[in-house]
Amino acid sequence: MPADMPQTQVDDLALLGLMQLVSPALPIGAFAWSQGLESAFELGWVNNEQQLGDWLEGVLEDGLTRCELPLLARLQRAWAEQDQTALADWNAWLHATRETAELSDEDLRLGAALVRLLGSLELLPPADLMPEEPGYVTLFAWGATLRKVPVRQTLLGFAWAWLENQLAVACKAMPLGHTAAQRLTEQLRPKLVEAVDAALQMNDDELGPIIPGLALGSAQHETQYSRLFRS
After folding, report:
1. Which long-range contacts (CB under 8 A, 24 or more apart) does 125-130 make?
2. Of the candidates 178, 169, 139, 123, which has an alpha carbon nearest to the alpha carbon of residue 24?
3. How far apart are CA 73 and CA 221, in angstroms?
4. For the chain, percent helix, then strand, then coil, each to nearest 5?
């Protein structure tokens, strides 16, 4: 962005850039992954709208709030400061938290797809800053940094994209009606804000997801006979 661009235009372009990153139309294949939710349907853990709301709220509180969201804040700061060591360390830390092959594969494949997309747009970060096998969260943080999106809005956008994807999965696999999905959106929107508030207050030694049910379901999904999604 030109250095002399008015702040209003900078803010507007940042918002549009964030909308581009969280759009379902972003061609990285996120629609193909359910992040363990399809397993919850298959195993009978989630059977209706109320149970789905409880599941999503639990994953948000014990998963995203303790992992992806605070990590995004740290990665965005590391990109802004060009701190290659911090980028590599947090990227590796994220890989270590993925408890199943499918969840790890999802992060790596979406990250690789985002690298290809950014490369085609000539928006890749400097090669000397790029971690080895950068994951989706790491590249999302780069995209937000490049577009000068404030950290809080980055976290809100990421959480919103996660919720939209999970509800889209439910509409295909549960199935969940679109009106019910909108009711859950209304129910969970305040929870996204609370999750971001909590994530921004977390210290490094408090990080780490506590979602054993999702991990167990995801592990069983690897051998599930019939499935629509890759995780």
Report:
1. 125/79, 126/82, 128/84, 129/79, 129/82, 129/84, 129/87, 130/87
2. 169
3. 31
4. 70, 0, 30
d(CA 98, CA 180) in angstroms, rounded, equals 30
Q: How many residues does the chain have?
A: 231
Predicted pLDDT at 10: 65
| Pair 158, 135: CB distance under 8 Å | no
Q: What is the pTM of this model?
A: 0.92
Distance, CA of 17 to chain centre: 16
d(CA 176, CA 170): 5
Place of tokens 């999702």: 214
Binning pLDDT at 50, 70 and 90, where does residue 69 land?
A: very high
Please, which residues have CB within 8 angstroms of residue 226's CB and are 6 or more apart in sequence? none
Residue 19, SS3 per DSSP: helix
Query: For 123-170, how does the pLDDT look when each residue is reduced to its tens digit (9 = 90+)?
Result: 889 999 999 899 999 999 999 999 999 999 999 999 999 999 999 888
Residue 101, pLDDT > 60, answer: yes
Residue pair 72/154 in contact (Cβ under 8 Å)? The answer is yes
